Amino acid sequence: MLIESLPQLFEGLKITLGLTILSLLLGSVLGILMAVGRVYGKKPLVFFIYIYEKTLRGIPLLVIFFLIYFGLSQIGINFDPFTAAVLGLGLRSTAYQAQIYRSAINSIPTGQMIAARSMGMSKLKAIRYIILPQVLRLSIPGWSNELTIVLKDTSIAFSIGVIDLMRQGRYIYSVNHELVLQVLLIIALIYFALVFSINKGLNYLEKKYKMTGFEIEIER
Amino acid sequence: MVKNNGGIKKLSDFIGFFIESLPKLLDGLYLTILLTFISLALGLILGLLLALGRVYGKTIISGICAGYIEIIRGTPLLVQLFIIYFGFPQAGISLEPLTAALIGLSLNSGAYQAEYLRGSIQSIESGQMVAARSLGMTKIKAIRNIILPQALRISIPAWSNELIYLVKYTSIAYIIQVRELTAEGKFIAAHSFRYIEIFAIIAIIYLVLTFIFTEIIDRVEKKLSIPGIGTIKRLEQRFI
Amino acid sequence: MNMLKVENIHKIYGKTKVLAGVSFTMEKGETKVIIGPSGTGKSTLLRCINQLSPPDKGRVWLEGIEVTDKKTDINLIRQKIGFVFQEFNLFNHLTAVKNVSIALEKVKKMEKEEAHKEAMNELKRVGLKDQADQYPSQLSGGQKQRVGIARALAMNPVIILFDEPTSALDPELIGDVLEVMKSLAGEISMLVVTHEMGFARNVADEIIFMEHGVIAECGNPDKMFKNPEKKRTKEFLGKISSLYGEE
């Protein structure tokens, strides 16, 4: 019985992974833009990003989900649960990732920018070719941490009806009541295996792309 | 003029709605705060035991503590709550939603707090322990009187992050039927269909809560600070 | 037409007047050394020339083009003004040769292989061919600074500004850097802020003594070291020579 339900869990796992990857990507792109904006932007922009970060980091993911999924549909903007979940997770991750990249940018000595500018690079070119390559390497530990957080928090998308690992599990044990504990333990095991292998994989990446003599010191 | 009146009407309507919902929201807020502080306190006790076990325990104990921490940190809180609330009854243990949430949050927070505390303990130079032992203190006495007073101070910022984390993540208890703040909001919204208004109010309440708690802990940190003892850098990227 | 013309430069930071009206000119191939007590605005002057910190008042021309004009494309001008930093400021994520070639590729839009070849030539010129693939953290201070010089040279500038290029180096590493700089004298215009009196005396065409944000005295090394007009110049040179030696 348990083995028969595995393919169903696998379907849920695909959704869980899809959620994770899409929202992490959204968070990375917007996060980098916001970090650059916060460090190099003009005052109004800096203030806007500051408020954005504080707000998205200060309210529970569940409330963000409800605002996007139920709230927006109240004013006629309807998302399917999956899209709403990607937006919720992605927009929140943006706030956290912006902070990761920002502290990495700030940890790069100002001389790097000055030297780049002194050679005739525009500010944009200097950010693109000198600052960001260093920032991205420095951000790997923070980013891998964020990846596991997003992966675990996709489970909360259960609450707005996304048919992820959690909900597929729910389908299985609502039919076979005697399997509740077993199914939940299998789900836990799947999450754990994912988090574990992500951590191991990114540790390897971190070692590979670390700049010699430029050791990564950001706290985990 | 007409437009303006409409605006005022909308505003007074909103205020009326807010006042109407307030008693229920306060009930929910009470549970949110209760969940937060009880799990923080229980998590601290558990975290302390786990951290000490990891740093000072023999191989087996240290391994068990490490395993527990890894498993909890490697799985979603929601799965943990589900196992306790829906899974345990199968093994003959049935719990009230609130009790299940308290146990789940405490067990979860304990693992994270253990990691902060371990970091703090390990950041204290080994000379402190050697000096304490040289005065004739037993290991336990040295931990109790010399290591922990320093480690706990160093952990305050990380601990403040944990508090903020808990405030937000108690909302997940809604999914196992605990009527905390988010749950109350959901019920009000389901009856009035005013999702945006109610969740905006709730978002603001959470923001105010996190703001107040951070302020309080900052004060505590300053008050308890000792010259020359730094605090571990805030693990900002994870929380707040 | 002077190659470089600096006219009446003023710069104020907060309430401190760092530069209070500095003017001088330079010709092609000339080497000028700026000396003076610390905090007299020597480094600021260099940064005013390539607009890393634009002056509050005054104008700068390079080859007849006004650098301080808002309409001038400063990124174009900066390609012609090399800059060597006290703290090297090598790009930490790039190897020595990439440090030299990156601006060739991204600013001058050279092909990758061509930029690499050019960069290798410059590294050879400063004696670091063998260190091409090392990262900044694997190089000694002196090597870093020579990469810094190669990086400036690669852009084929008309002038290089040196901002205390040896001040951050251990004494035994200074020699190599000064050797490289000496070898450039005459080939390219150099404006050097330094405390190395030996270099000033032997290489400079003119020494500019700055104090309190203005040029107190200037002249050829012979005049400056043997009979300066001002008492302050003599005092300063006496003090600095006993501190740093004369080579």
Structure explained in plain terms:
The complex is a heterotrimer of chains A (220), B (240) and C (247). With 220 residues, chain A is mainly alpha-helical. Chain A has helices spanning 6-40, 43-58, 61-74, 81-106, 110-118, 123-138, 140-153, 165-175, 180-208. In chain A, α1 (6-40) crosses α4, α1 (6-40) crosses α7 (140-153) and α5 packs antiparallel against α6 (123-138). The longest helix of chain A has 35 residues, at 6-40. Chain A is flat. The relative contact order of chain A is 0.15. The model of chain A is unreliable at 213-220 (pLDDT under 50). Chain B has one domain: MetI-like (MetI-like fold), CATH 1.10.3720.10. Chain B contains eight helices and no strands. Chain C is an alpha/beta fold. Chain C has a single domain, classed as P-loop containing nucleotide triphosphate hydrolases (Rossmann fold), CATH 3.40.50. Chains in contact: A-B, A-C.
Task: List its salient traits.
A: 220 residues, mainly alpha, MetI-like fold, disordered C terminus, B: 240 residues
How are the elements arranged and paired?
The complex is a heterotrimer of chains A (220), B (240) and C (247).
Chain A: H1 6-40, H2 43-58, H3 61-74, H4 81-106, H5 110-118, H6 123-138, H7 140-153, H8 165-175, H9 180-208
Chain B: H1 2-56, H2 59-73, H3 77-87, H4 97-123, H5 126-134, H6 139-169, H7 181-192, H8 195-224
Helix pairs in contact in B: 1-2, 1-4, 1-6, 1-7, 2-4, 3-4, 4-6, 5-6, 6-8, 7-8
Chain C: E1 4-13, E2 16-26, E3 31-35, H1 42-49, E4 57-62, E5 65-66, H2 74-78, E6 81-84, H3 96-106, H4 112-125, H5 141-154, E7 159-163, H6 171-184, E8 189-193, H7 197-203, E9 206-211, E10 214-219, H8 221-226, H9 231-244
Helix pairs in contact in C: 3-4, 3-5, 4-5, 5-6
